[in-house]
Design brief:
This protein is α+β, with helices and mostly antiparallel strands. Helix content is about 35%, strand content about 20%. The protein has 13 helices and 20 strands. It has a 5-stranded antiparallel sheet with strand order 1-2-3-5-4, with helices on one face. Strands 7-6-10-9-8 form a 5-stranded antiparallel sheet. A 5-stranded antiparallel sheet has the order 11-20-19-16-17. It is elongated and about 95 Å long. The chain starts with 20 loop residues before the first strand and ends in an 8-residue tail after the last strand. The N terminus and C terminus are likely disordered.
Length: about 625
């Protein structure tokens, strides 16, 4: 992962384009880290808006890491130098020697103060606080280092954009593990600290809450939120803490019995005994309307300890999500300044848990919807092997690509489509198009007629939706209501065809008739390695009314392979901005697949698409391979 020791030199710095470098100066005061975080996010937004090639690999996780690293570096400069801080943020495009990367450089004007990166004791009984931020930088960055110049000290960190920082990537560290490791670094060494509670009365509380918000924001797993929150609390504000999470009651609003999701203790050997006690006696608190701290009995596994324990409800929008319980040993009262800070922290934890649950609920609904939009299996065609690859760009959301292979009136029909857009809007069109296609085919309509009628249905449906929207607006605003744009047309690209198996006396294989409406053209691979398109480009479905779709018929002879793909394949981009199908890249890749089975061809094309770009595939990816010859089991 990241280097644990600094390097005493700056990374190679080839002259970058001007638009990929951002600089600013920050005051040497506690406001600097927050300003640095906002500056980094603004720079990332600007570069993304310019559509720079390397920005395709900047995920939310990479952006969060960059924000966290710059906050730690600037905080380090403010604490140890106290001078004006110079911040440089650079986006490096890839070259032959190294991948694309984000590079942060933070300079101050007090070079005689060295940056410490050790874990030695600072005072009697207290943990060393210096260098913990740099431990976090080392954990998140590929490498980091320090450069001393006359009157200037620069600390830099390099975050590569080659995919190691994102999931899923083979060999990558899961996001939950990286998040937990970062929280362990942020939380002090698990020993009882010498606390000065008055430090929380000033900027210390604001800094703590800001850093906690940054760490919790964007976490999509409620258990990870509880884990991170626990490690932030202990031992900074408490000796131990525990989180109970209540189940989501759904529409009924009735929460299930709470579960003990996380227990954290400054003494790791005490975690399991404390868990056993808390599991038996969860705290009893007033309803969700009460969110303040409530004193609760001290849970003591050993029977010889004492202290103060408080419990707080985690509430969002009047609905209870769980309970936070904290404890301090050897005291009869927790200062008001600390309880107020914990109460503010609990609100942030509750918001993070609520956001994680909303995402989980949406992802679950979308997965169920996705299963209903796609066939449970594809039909087996006599004498023709088939294989499908389908990968939505977001595993948690329904994609816009769809496919099907089914039997209708003595022939076998196949389709591969791509709805404009993604998410629920695309799913609505997919939910209409695939059943309509099956119905039209089973009513005996031929290929061209099926596309003509589907085009008409899409246009009629869009017109009805636009008229309904106009009526709603008119009714709400009266005669003075401002006109609105009509509802966006529901259009899609589609490759649709039918296969009729042929007996050996007619050459074997199958007769194929197909039409392509605004879709990447299908490619036919002959056994000798020649590749050619077998359709003509035509207009998208759902765009214009007066169109008659033309079909093309050919013989899919034994050994021939027909490849059908969506634009997630053809428009896959590399860091240099090239697309996979530039200069007939798809045809050249398919030509190298001669002699492979249908599944072998599909796997080879899929692998080529993934390796063409360094980051994850950003669009839905679907491909269908049909190969005449000995029938093989159809698989998804």
């Amino acid at each position: 992962m990241g280097s644990t020791e600094p390097k005493d030199h700056l990374p190679p710095q080839p002259p970058p384009p001007h638009h990929s470098v951002a600089r600013t100066s920050l005051p040497g005061n506690p406001l600097a880290p927050g300003a640095a975080r906002r500056f980094v996010r603004a720079a990332l937004a600007d570069w993304t808006g310019l559509a720079l090639p390397a920005t395709a690999a900047i995920t939310d996780r990479v952006a969060d890491d960059a924000v966290l690293v710059v906050a730690e570096l600037v905080t380090n400069a403010v604490v140890h130098a106290g001078t004006t801080v110079e911040l440089l943020f650079r986006l490096e495009e890839p070259d032959a020697d190294q991948p694309a990367a984000l590079v942060l450089e933070v300079s101050d004007h007090h070079p005689t103060r060295t940056v410490r990166n050790d874990h030695t004791a600072h005072d009697e009984g207290g943990p060393e606080e210096y260098g913990r931020g740099l431990q976090l930088v080392a954990a998140l960055a590929e490498c980091w280092g320090i450069t001393y110049r006359p009157g200037l000290k620069t600390v830099w960190a390099r975050l590569p954009l080659d995919g190691w920082n994102t999931c899923p990537v083979p060999g990558a560290e899961p996001a939950i593990q990286r998040g937990l490791r970062a929280a362990e670094i942020l939380a002090p060494t698990p020993r009882r600290p010498v606390r000065d509670d008055q430090e929380w009365a000033g900027s210390g509380a604001l800094t703590f809450l800001a850093e906690a918000s940054d760490l919790l924001a964007g976490q999509l797993d409620e258990d990870l939120v509880a884990a991170l929150a626990g490690q932030l609390l202990v031992p900074r504000l408490a000796d131990w803490c525990a989180f109970w999470l209540e189940g989501d009651g759904g529409e009924s609003g009735t929460a299930t019995a709470p579960r003990l999701a996380r227990v954290w203790h400054a003494d790791e050997s005490a975690i399991e005994p404390l868990r056993d006690v808390l599991q038996k006696e969860p705290p009893r608190l007033p309803g969700p309307a009460h969110t303040g701290p409530v004193p609760v009995p001290w849970p003591d596994p050993s029977g010889d300890g004492h202290g103060t324990a408080l419990a707080l409800r985690l509430v969002v929008g009047g609905r209870g999500l769980g309970t936070l319980m904290i404890g301090r040993r050897g005291t009869s009262r927790i200062p008001d300044v600390v309880t107020g800070l914990i109460e503010d922290f609990a609100r942030r934890v509750a918001l993070a848990i609520g956001a994680a649950r909303r995402y989980t609920r949406q992802a679950t609904i979308s997965r169920v919807l996705q299963r209903g939009l796609l066939p449970s299996k594809v039909a087996q065609i006599p004498g023709v092997a088939s294989h499908v690859v389908y990968e939505p760009s977001d595993d948690g959301l329904a994609g816009g690509d769809f496919y099907d292979v089914f039997q209708a009136a003595g022939r076998w029909c196949f389709m591969l489509g791509d709805v404009q857009g993604s998410g629920p809007e695309a799913a609505v069109v997919t939910g209409l198009a695939r059943p309509w296609l099956r119905l039209l085919a089973r009513e005996g309509h031929r290929v061209g007629e099926v596309l003509d009628r589907l085009n008409r249905l899409l246009l009629d449906d869009a017109t009805e939706a636009a008229e309904a929207a106009a009526l709603v607006v008119a009714a709400a605003g009266g005669p003075d209501a401002q006109p609105v744009s009509p509802t966006q047309s529901r259009f899609l690209s589609l490759l649709y065809g039918e296969l009729t198996p042929l007996p050996p006396e007619e050459g074997g294989g199958a007769r194929c008739t197909l039409a392509c409406a605004g879709h990447p053209l299908p490619l036919l691979l002959r056994p000798g390695g020649t590749v050619s398109p077998v359709a003509l480009p035509q207009v998208l479905l759902g765009v214009i009314d007066d169109v008659a779709y033309e079909t093309h018929t050919f013989h899919l002879a034994p050994g021939d392979t027909l490849l059908c793909v969506t634009d997630g394949v053809t428009e896959r981009r590399s860091r240099a901005g090239r697309m996979f199908d530039d200069e007939d890249g798809l045809a050249r890749t398919l030509a190298c697949c001669a002699g492979l089975s249908a599944q072998g061809v599909a796997d080879r094309i899929r692998q080529a698409v993934h390796t063409f770009g360094e980051g994850p595939v950003c669009d839905d990816l679907a491909l269908l391979v049909l190969q005449a010859g000995e029938a093989r089991e159809s698989r998804e």
